[in-house]
Amino acid sequence: MGPKPTSVTNRIRVLRADAGEMTQAELARRIGVTRQTVIAIEHGRYSPSLELAFQIAHVFGRPLDDVFQYEAPGTRP
Amino acid sequence: MHDADLVLPGDDEPIAMTMGERTVWAYLVTVVVTSGVYLTLMVTRLADGPVAEIAWVGPMLWTIGASVLGSVVLTIVLTIAGTISATIARSIASARTGQRGRPAAPVVEIDAGSDARDRDINLVGDHVLVGVLGAGFAGALVLAMLEADTFWIGNLLFVFGTLGAIVETTTKIRLYRRGF
């Protein structure tokens, strides 16, 4: 698999585990997208809109930067 | 434990193709087949006689109609086939997880229609389509200014329409598969 197309990383999988092992399908249902979109976001293959990102953070009851992190190009070790 | 090592219940459920991606695949296959047949017919007729005597309007209209109808029919066929295969895969996965003592996998969302990612992918696809159609439009204008036969003008637009559809759909499939 090649490099991820986005510089935005996330902790959605960890947060789902902390939220009683929430399934991808359940998270998808709660934010109104398909499970495939949740998978694409988790794997860094799709950067969600700001609104969708806030919806995901709201589901976990966390601030946005607890869920998503941005690595500026060239800052990776 | 690294995030990537985490596998939560349901994560290993089969992943069905979304309705949006399925429609794109159906459109790509249909356009390639119908346009391929039409262009082969036109090339054959070009070799047989003068351009002014070639009947192209009827075949082109039939081709466009077949493309529209064919993509709808193929989307329905792919949806039925995808649903059946996802159901079978889900049953196998449920049986497997049941044997391990884990709770049976929940009912998977096979298809929930289009969402924000589909709309974003459509926007990018439309953007590349407009670029190709614009080039075809410019070419048709040049041919009209040169007073070329309507055969060449109509078929140039058709070829660029086909190219546009192919570039649009392959772009969308790449975005669905590799992300953006």
What features would you highlight for this structure?
heterodimer; A: 77 residues; mainly alpha; two-stranded antiparallel ribbon; 5 helices; 2 strands; B: 180 residues; 4 helices
Task: Describe what this molecule looks like in 3D.
Chain A is mainly α and 77 residues long. Chain A is 49% helix and 8% strand. Chain A is globular. Chain B is mainly α and 180 residues long. Chain B is 73% helix and 0% strand. Chain B has helices at 19-48, 57-99, 116-145, 150-178. At the A-B interface, helix 1, helix 2 and helix 3 of A face helix 3 of B.
Give the arrangement of secondary structure elements.
The complex is a heterodimer of chains A (77) and B (180).
Chain A: E1 8-10, H1 12-18, H2 24-31, H3 35-42, H4 50-60, H5 64-67, E2 68-70
Antiparallel strand pairs in A: 1-2
Chain B: H1 19-48, H2 57-99, H3 116-145, H4 150-178
Helix pairs in contact in B: 1-2, 1-4, 3-4
Query: Largest chain interface and its two residue counts?
Result: A-B, 33 and 25 residues
Spans of at least 5 consecutive residues with low confidence of chain A: none
Termini Cα gap of chain B:
27 Å
Report Rg of chain B: 23 Å
% residues in beta strands of chain B: under 5%
What is the chains' assembly state? heterodimer
Give the CA-based shape of chain A: globular
Mean pLDDT of chain B: 87
Helix content of chain B: over 70%
Structural class of chain A comes to mainly alpha
- Could you say which structural class the secondary elements and strand pairing of chain B correspond to? mainly alpha
Largest sheet of chain B: none
Radius of gyration of chain A: 12 Å
